[in-house]
Every structure is written in structure tokens, then in C-alpha cells.
Amino acid sequence: MPQGQPSVVPEDGLTTRQRRNRPLVVVHTGIGKGKSTAAFGLALRAWNQGWPIGVFQFVKSAKWKVGEERALRVLGDSGEGGTVAWHKMGEGWSWVQRNVREAATSEEAAREGWEQVKRDLAAETYRLYVLDEFAYPMHWGWIDTDEVVSVLRDRPGAQHVVITGRNAPEKLIEVADLVTEMTKIKHPMDAGQKGQKGIEW
Question: Taking residues 167-188, what's their average pLDDT?
């Protein structure tokens, strides 16, 4: 694909411009490091284009302060690019009013997050959705993959969706436009080294 030129031009009736601007479903999966990092790299590009961005973290703890979150929140508040809304399952989701004692289980919280994503897709709230670690709730059977595929296939407008996580279901991979599998060749943890600032968070 030299200089961004496709190797095949399908006979789908679309103009070059229509095909170029078609909204994508992107999946980053595999056991290697960098799935979320790559998704947040796309978010930086989207911010630069002035797109509204919605980040939904489905697994990571609310106590885990990732560098990408701080950077994208600052950029989103800067008024120079797109807006950034950041939601964490570990915080009980920002739209759910609930007493701490009535906190949902992880499975219920994942379902609540997916319900909000569906509402936002229907309302065309964001131009880019980062569904971080969303492959896990599907893999665990908490969220129905067939429903996810149907919603993504029928989403209105020009909304791009990026999904990260190991073990992405085959049905999700089939409906996706871009799938990257991160493959581990070597990792410092294999040699007993723990994660470090600036690399893991």
C-alpha cells in the first residue's frame, strides 16, 4: 500500500471520496502490549481534527491513572481540538447515580457501559469512540457479541469505533474494517522486571 494507495478498488458503487470517508470499526487485539496505546494514538489524531471523542474504559480500575487519560483530558479542555469525555467502569460510570453500597458488580457495570455506548451511538454523540478493553466483556459472555455486531453495523452517521482487548470474538473481527493483532516477541516482565512509569502508565 505505497503512499496510502489501496491495492484493490472494489466495485461497490461508491466514489473515491465516499469510500475514503466511510466510518470504520477498528479492533486491536492479541497478547502483545500496545493495544490501548494504539487506540489513544488514534484519539490524538481525532482530537487534532476537532472530533468529539468518547473514551469508555471497561476493565481498568478507577484508581489506575493512565498518562493518556490526563493528556487527552487536558487537550480536550484546551479549546484547540476536539472535546474528550472519559468514562471509567471502576468509577461506576459518570452517568449512573448510585449509593456506594449499591455498587454494581463488574458484569452489571459493563452492561451499563454498553447501554450508554448504544445511546451515544444512536444520538451520534461522538465522532470517535474508544471502547478500551471492551473485548473482555464479550469474551466473558457478559455482553452479547451478536448485539454488538448488529449495533456497530447499523450505527448512523460517520462514527468511528475502536475496540481493544485480548480475545476479540471472531464475529467482531469479521465485522471490523481494520484489525491489528499485537504479538509479543519479548517483554521486560519475562525477565522479572515490573512495569514502570512512562512505559506502562
Answer: 95
pLDDT digits (tens, 9 = 90+) for 49-67: 999 999 999 986 555 667 8
* Interatomic CA distance for residues 182 and 115, integer angstroms: 28
Find the helix or strand (DSSP H, E) in which 178 lies.
strand 178-181
Task: Give the torsion sign (CA, 97, 105, 150, 30).
Answer: positive
Q: Provide the H-helix boundaries in 124-184.
A: 135-139, 145-153, 170-175
pLDDT band at 101 (very low <50, low <70, confident <90, very high): very low
Strand partners, 25: 161
Of the candidates 141, 91, 99, the one whose C-alpha atom is nearest the C-alpha of residue 116 is: 91
Gap between the Cα atoms of 137 and 165, Å rounded? 9
Collapsed DSSP state (helix, strand, coil) of residue 54: strand
